[in-house]
Design a protein that fits this description.
196 residues, alpha+beta, Coagulation Factor XIII, Chain A, domain 1, six-stranded mixed sheet, three-stranded antiparallel sheet, 9 strands, 16% helix, 31% strand, globular
């Protein structure tokens, strides 16, 4: 009887630890809706053959600290999550693009399906001359974000908007949105294909 009770308590303790270990990442989810992200294009059916991301567009969560840390090169758009690797596939440079005007103001929109304390939102863009037929790497991006929005640990609402001036670019680019969570080791990643 004593062994059964000990086993039961040990099992409950392990289950509780597992729940605590995973609950931090399960509380926050989101993606960019403007410009539309790859995961949103898969989720709304605009792009087919997307694998599991079509059912989980707000779940591209990977390690925070980008660009020094975070998902590895070639796996940035998926947040380094193997089951979402379709987001890293450049599809021959043929992802649908959002048309933008360089140097103009744009309202960036995040859809938040589960709120979490937030450090900041940052937006990076590819360098001129990058190759849209290859998976995204850090070397493809301008090293500094063109827009940073500090959030001071506050929780965002279900829709978050940021106004910012678009960089002076021409042609096709990727805008990488990074939503950094304050109280976990993770951030959310969203790649949006755009054309200036």
């Amino acid at each position: 009887m004593r062994n059964k009770l000990t086993s039961l308590l040990l099992g409950l303790g392990l289950a509780g630890s597992a729940m605590l270990a995973t609950s931090g990442s399960a509380q926050a989810h989101g993606y960019t809706d403007s410009p539309v992200s790859r995961q949103q294009l898969c989720g709304n059916g605009t792009v087919r053959n997307c694998g599991q991301i079509q059912w989980e567009p707000p779940s591209v969560e990977g390690p925070k600290g980008f660009p020094a840390r975070g998902p590895g090169d070639g796996h940035i758009c998926s947040g380094g999550i193997g089951r979402f690797s379709e987001l890293d596939d450049p599809r021959g440079g043929k992802w649908p693009t959002t048309k933008l005007t360089a140097g103009q103001n744009h309202t960036f929109v995040w859809r938040i399906t589960a709120r979490h304390a937030t450090t900041d939102f940052r937006y990076y863009i590819t360098k001129d001359g990058w190759d849209p037929t290859k998976p995204l790497t850090r070397a493809d991006l301008d090293p500094q974000p063109f827009l940073s929005v500090p959030f001071g640990g506050r929780q965002p609402g279900s829709t978050v908007t940021h106004d910012g001036v678009l960089p002076r670019k021409t042609g096709q680019h990727i805008i990488l949105g990074v939503w950094t969570i304050a109280d976990t080791g993770n951030a959310f990643y969203a790649c949006s294909d755009v054309r200036f």
